[in-house]
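Colleagues,

For the teaching module next term, I've prepared a clean inverse folding example: a structure given as tokens, and then the sequence designed for it. I'd like students to try predicting residues themselves before seeing the answer, so please don't circulate the second half yet.
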């Protein structure tokens, strides 16, 4: 999830653990603890983009990292905050809960999380909620503000942190319900429309959980389409994109390409843009693809111009967006 959501959730959890013992400082401690796995962002200052893509949400989002940091941070906090009446096991449980919660909810996005690093490079990705979904983030944000304002001794503080955490996870359950229904409809459409594939995924389009992006195919290419939870017809309008592995001849052995293919989990295509060779990671969707099925993919990496690949994950997410785009998205959500 986005950084602000982690901070707000972390503050609510901090209040739950230590609010009665250390007051509003518990919120600050919680916000910091929840943000610990994202220290991997520091790697972007010196790592090449493809290597950084694999490093992000890698070891610092692993279960091993959570265990190590929970013990180290717990022991440090137990000493730094003396005198206090908080037992060491509670400090360790607090940091473990915060870090594990962070890597748990991150796994519901489409980026992928390395829970089992360094023993396995397999990435966990449930593809159930968009990385920035206001319907998930709003509730802990409201609770965060309320907890800042309310007196530290008020009995209402528990109600607010419970509200902030509980409503978010009720919404996450709703997202999983939508995911299950969409997957059922999509697999039925594959059979009815003769879409052969060896792999597929569904994931929400930006900022909501009602319109889903669908990709299915094999090593030859991929069918891309969209499905709303409110669609009435069983068919899905798919557009086919060949993978074009032949374009990688001559550079397929480069380290950049190998890392990009691994990062994409095989969901990629290669294109020529004028004289430039481009690698598309299909998992991050298209720019306004629900309106124009031939739109460019949000994640596009210039293989022959590596210096132009800064912010490669973010730069295409909301390219060409404006108020009219939002209206088009809302219309598509309503169903075909």
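(Answer key — instructors only)
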């Amino acid at each position: 999830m986005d950084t602000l959501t982690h901070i707000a959730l972390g503050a609510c959890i901090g209040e739950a653990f230590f609010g009665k013992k250390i007051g509003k400082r518990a919120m600050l401690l919680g916000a910091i603890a929840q943000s610990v796995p994202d220290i991997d962002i520091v790697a972007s200052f010196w790592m090449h983009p493809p290597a950084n893509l694999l490093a992000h949400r890698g070891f610092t989002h692993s279960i091993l990292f959570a265990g190590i940091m929970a013990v180290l941070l717990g022991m440090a906090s137990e000493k730094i905050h003396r005198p206090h009446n908080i037992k060491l096991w509670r400090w360790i449980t607090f940091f473990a809960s915060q870090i594990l919660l962070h890597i748990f909810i991150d796994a519901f996005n489409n980026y992928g999380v390395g829970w089992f690093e360094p023993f396995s490079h397999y990435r966990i990705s449930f593809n159930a909620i968009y990385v920035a979904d206001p319907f998930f983030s709003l509730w802990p944000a409201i609770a965060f503000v309320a907890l800042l304002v309310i007196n530290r001794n008020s009995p209402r503080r528990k109600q607010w942190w419970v509200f902030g955490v509980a409503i978010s996870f009720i919404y996450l359950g709703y997202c999983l319900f939508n995911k299950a229904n969409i997957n059922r409809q999509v697999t039925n459409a594959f059979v009815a429309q003769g879409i052969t594939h060896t792999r597929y995924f569904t994931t929400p389009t930006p900022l909501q959980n009602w319109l889903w992006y669908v990709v299915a195919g094999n090593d030859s290419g991929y069918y891309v389409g969209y499905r709303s939870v409110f669609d009435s017809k069983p068919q899905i309008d798919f557009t086919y994109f060949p993978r074009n592995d032949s374009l990688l001849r001559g550079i397929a052995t480069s380290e950049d390409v190998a890392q990009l293919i691994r990062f994409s989990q095989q969901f990629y295509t290669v294109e020529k843009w004028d004289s430039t060779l481009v690698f598309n990671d299909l998992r991050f969707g298209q720019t306004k693809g629900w309106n124009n099925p031939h739109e460019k993919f949000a994640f596009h990496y210039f293989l022959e111009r590596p210096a132009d690949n800064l912010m490669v994950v973010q730069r295409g997410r909301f390219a060409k967006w404006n108020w009219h785009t939002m209206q088009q998205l809302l219309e598509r959500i309503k169903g075909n």
